[in-house]
TrEMBL record:
Gene3D superfamilies: Adenosylhomocysteinase-like (3.40.50.1480), NAD(P)-binding Rossmann-like Domain (3.40.50.720). Pfam families: AdoHcyase (PF05221), AdoHcyase_NAD (PF00670). It is an enzyme of class 3 (hydrolase). One of its GO terms (molecular function) is adenosylhomocysteinase activity. Belongs to the adenosylhomocysteinase family. This is Adenosylhomocysteinase.
Length: 418
């Protein structure tokens, strides 16, 4: 079996951590049991490009139980957990191509390695597989069943490909399921981003000023948790409705160039480019800490920071200090890459359970509906979303109401007035 990982001897440690995560993934476990019985992915070659974490390992095992022949590479050069990669190779016979801290060339070599199997189905987090397939293997695209996409920015890119008429197969937008973005993006990113900053810096949030760029699903989660830890939160936004929501949620809202003068911590979660740009780096205080938990490190204009700096040094793991020519010290965490996956372990298993239930059912949906799906971005049916939520509630021991016949009639009627 071909693979490329850091060290096979880490497999045992990885296996323990994978089982620990599995305890909190009851929905995925139920899907894996169904998959093992029904084999909905029998004979399907799958290339997956996801963060190589304990939660992803449980998803890979579920896909394999469903009959898929699955190959895995990393969706980010810094997020791989090397013990997990080792355990998947040694204990599960799943080929993995991922090493934490790999350089850009290795990252793309690994992407090509998982694509070399000529997949029927891809599973992406950021659309790297789909874009590489379309630009380098156009002949294969025509023969594929489809793909799934995990994250907001990936879905935006795929929708743009579909709009331009270049998307060659259907893609299930996992992020568009409510059981994904409402929980993963908000509670997952909210907690794991602060966890990443704390592990990297060991700094206190209480009494500090945290600037959160972007008040979407991720931004809402981060702002609420930072406030809960005693920080003053300033939100920056470009969308008037989101900005108004932030105001009414009790935060200050300001343009980045104003917020830049006040922030102790800066966290970007926009999926956009140069959100902390030249003006912001020029205005920041001595000691400011800057990180990104959105898409790629382009959210921060790091080339500009480099250009105004006279020195740079690594102070701690994941903390790089830039000393500007005017003497200010600005700290960038995790090379500006996703801080929750670089210095922490990403989202906890409880939320990845639902995200990855959508991934597994998304792959099954593609295979089952291969004859009818159009070459565009699709959502999983509402009923699947509802089922995942119902399974999660059951696992949590939470019961809810069911509509009575009388209530159904009432809700469907128009005759009954005041
Ligand atoms: P979203 O679309 O709900 O929110 C993004 C927000 O950023 C929007 O409200 C938008 O108006 C705002 N924005 C855009 N440009 C801006 C700018 N220049 N300044 C200020 N605000 C700006 O998206 P989301 O689901 O919150 O995801 C945000 C990013 O985080 C995406 O790139 C997504 O892929 C990524 N993501 C990361 C994780 C993680 O684990 N770190 C988890 C989920 C999503
Ligand atoms: N590939 C890009 C895209 C953003 S990653 C990049 O790495 O720069 C954001 C996604 O990471 C989220 O949608 C979330 O579902 C996923 N994620 C967060 N925690 C994770 C975990 N513990 N395991 C696997 N994926 C995780």
């Amino acid at each position: 079996m071909d693979f490329d990982i850091k060290d096979k001897s880490l497999a045992e440690a990885g296996a323990h951590r994978i089982s620990w995560a599995a305890r909190d993934m009851p929905v995925l476990r139920k899907i894996a049991e169904d998959f093992a019985r029904e084999k909905p992915l029998k004979g399907i070659r799958m290339s997956a490009c996801l963060h190589v974490t304990t939660e992803t390992a449980n998803l890979m095992k579920a896909l394999k139980a469903g009959g898929a022949d699955v190959y895995l590479c990393a969706s980010n050069p810094l997020s791989t957990q090397d013990d997990v990669a080792a355990s998947l190779v040694v204990n599960d016979g799943i080929p993995v191509f991922a090493i934490k801290g790999e350089d850009n060339d290795t990252y793309y070599r690994h992407i090509r390695a998982v694509l070399d199997i000529k997949p029927h189905v891809t599973m992406d987090d950021g659309a790297d597989l789909v874009s590489t397939l379309h630009s380098h293997y156009p002949e294969w695209v025509k023969e594929m069943i489809g793909g799934t996409e995990e994250t907001t920015t990936g879905v935006i890119r795929l929708k743009s490909m579909a709009q331009k008429g270049v998307l060659g197969f259907p893609v299930v937008a996992v992020n568009d399921s409510q059981t994904k973005h409402l929980f993963d993006n908000r509670y997952g990113t909210g907690q794991s981003t602060l966890d990443g900053i704390m592990r990297a810096t060991n700094r206190l949030f209480a009494g500090s000023t945290v600037v959160v760029a972007g008040y979407g699903w991720c931004g809402r989660g981060i702002a609420r948790r930072a406030q809960g830890m005693g920080a003053r939160v300033i939100v920056t936004e470009i969308d008037p409705i989101k900005a108004l929501e932030a105001v009414m949620d009790g935060y200050s809202v300001a343009p980045m160039k104003e917020a830049a003068k006040l922030g102790d911590f800066f966290i970007t979660v926009t999926g956009n480019i140069n959100v902390v740009g030249a003006e912001a780096f020029d205005a920041m205080k001595d000691g400011a800490i800057v990180c990104n938990s959105g898409h790629f490190n382009v959210e921060l204009n790091l080339p500009y920071l480099e250009s105004i700096s006279k020195e740079r040094s690594i102070l701690r793991d994941f903390v790089e200090e830039f000393v500007t020519r005017d003497g200010r010290r600005i700290m960038v965490l995790g090379e500006g890459r996703l801080i929750n996956l670089a210095s922490a372990e990403g989202h906890p298993a409880q939320v990845m359970d639902m995200s990855f239930a959508n991934q597994a059912l998304g792959a099954k949906y593609l295979v089952q509906n291969r004859k009818t799906l159009e070459k565009t971005v699709v959502r999983l049916p509402e009923a699947v979303d509802q089922d995942i939520a119902a399974l999660k509630l059951a696992a949590l021991g939470v019961k809810i109401e069911t509509l009575t016949e009388e209530q159904k009639d009432y809700l469907a009627s128009w005759e009954m007035g005041t």
